[in-house]
Amino acid sequence: xxxxxxxxxxxxxxxxxxxxxxxxxxxxxxxxxxxxxxxxxxxxxxxxxxxxxxxxxxxxxxxxxxxxxxxxxxxxxxxxxxxxxxxxxxxxxxxxxxxxxxxxxxxxxxxxxxxxxxxxxxxxxxxxxxxxxxxxxxxxxxxxxxxxxxxxxxxxxxxxxxxxxxxxxxxxxxxxxxxxxxxxxxxxxxxxxxxxxxxxxxxxxxxxxxxxxxxxxxxxxxxxxxxxxxxxxxxxxxxxxxxxxxxxxxxxxxxxxxxxxxxxxxxxxxxxxxxxxxxxxxxxxxxxxxxxxxxxxxxxxxxxxxxxxxxxxxxxxxxxxxxxxxxxxxxxxxxxxxxxxxxxxxxxxxxxxxxxxxxxxxxxxxxxxxxxxxxxxxxxxxxxxxxxxxxxxxxxxxxxxxxxxxxxxxxxxxxxxxxxxxxxxxxxxxxxxxxxxxxxxxxxxxxxxxxxxxxxxxxxxxxxxxxxxxxxxxxxxxxxxxxxxxxxxxxxxxxxxxxxxxxxxxxxxxxxxxxxxxxxxxxxxxxxxxxxxxxxxxxxxxxxxxxxxxxxxxxxxxxxxxxxxxxxxxxxxxxxxxxxxxxxxxxxxxxxxxxxxxxxxxx
Length: 603
Prior knowledge:
Layout: H1 6-27, H2 32-42, H3 56-74, H4 78-83, H5 85-109, H6 114-125, H7 129-138, H8 145-174, H9 184-193, H10 198-233, H11 238-260, H12 264-275, H13 281-306, H14 310-314, H15 316-340, H16 345-354, H17 360-371, H18 377-408, E1 446-449, H19 453-464, E2 469-473, H20 476-484, E3 488-491, H21 497-502, E4 510-513, H22 518-531, E5 536-541, H23 544-552, E6 557-560, H24 561-577, H25 593-596
């Protein structure tokens, strides 16, 4: 039996080394993705020792991009996409044009052809899907207005790059090449009928195919995909359901790329978006999460494999210029564009930080440019160097924007500060902790973190009992609904200290952590206990280990959902077999309180 297993060795080598170096980076207070990139450099061809398969790694990474965009689509409705089209479409187009112009200028200064300089500029203009979405998800910003604008901006960039991949052969003719159309349908017509559609025909054909794909997904896909998932769910097989989620995500993405010329990431996004209309969307997101994270790590490893550290020594000035265009030029352009649309400075800073890096589409453009003889290999190396450095710098860019936000958002002296009252007339976005925002004036209140199926039950009981309470929630839609009902709300991630500070922890009597993420819950409990040692902290868990961990970090009471469900069942059986008194909970004797509030792992 042959033991040459490049696929297995690439996955094992990439994940194991990424885990080790990611843990070291986390220990050094650096983002884990820095460790993933360094792992890629170590297993790449430019460093001694083991070399992973350079053909397989990018394909494995592409699976991560597909699953990540599918997950974003599950949390992103068509209404959300259309709501930001007014800023995302013109903003992305102007930003792409500005960054491409800067890249073209740098290429011209180095003596490259016009076509090569344009390809170089385009490669520097498009942000990485994985990096942008990871950054938004870590900060719980995907469902906020800023997150929706950033994702919409990203979708427009993807559509523009799909068109650019068709037009690059036309740019090759500027450099003197003899390259025919690469758009499949146009190439087929040219070969069979001798019909040359020209550049305008190729562009038109591409736009028609993209529009046809979107129409099919919105008309037929939004009915067929949810129906299919419901049928699979009714089989009762978790394995089939998980397999169905992966089949839809990967199948739609691959079919979109092959049949309609749409990028794999964009196809997966639309698949997730139409499935989002099903009530099974949350379960689908949970089932695809482990593979999504694993393959996203392989993406960063594959990027690191392409990087040749020697270019930092041989061509330092062009590398610095490239990084400047990506990190500074693009970010400043995006910041000014968002301000022109009269959006808050905090939103502009988030968008600019999100776009201050490049990734997977840049590599595709660079490879195509080199294959067509447009872009010199030096240009590809500069793009790779710029990608690596900008991805490493991106967390620092977010950190800098967080520090700049209060300065840019400082109110004028004659303006009165805005208070958050118990009536919650105003909605607070705590990830933008501006100086005119003050903690809630509530005192002796309860703080409820998370308003999902568990948190909503707790909140309804607090409201019916007349207990003053405040809700911290990451979903903008839920906070708007609660604020309309007169409930005090804070929009943002409770894991951030500035968010909890807005809830007035020192004056609160209790804290209910209803989110299912034990890691984040521990952070919340630890900080709350340090600020208010006497506060009652109630949390939820899914295992005995999580119970112990939460108590170690300061929780007074931890409810494990599975145990409460089991106790509710035992008590109900006791009513029948041992004549125990029935529950009186206002819902009849068939409803057990433990089951009503019991969390599930799918939440």
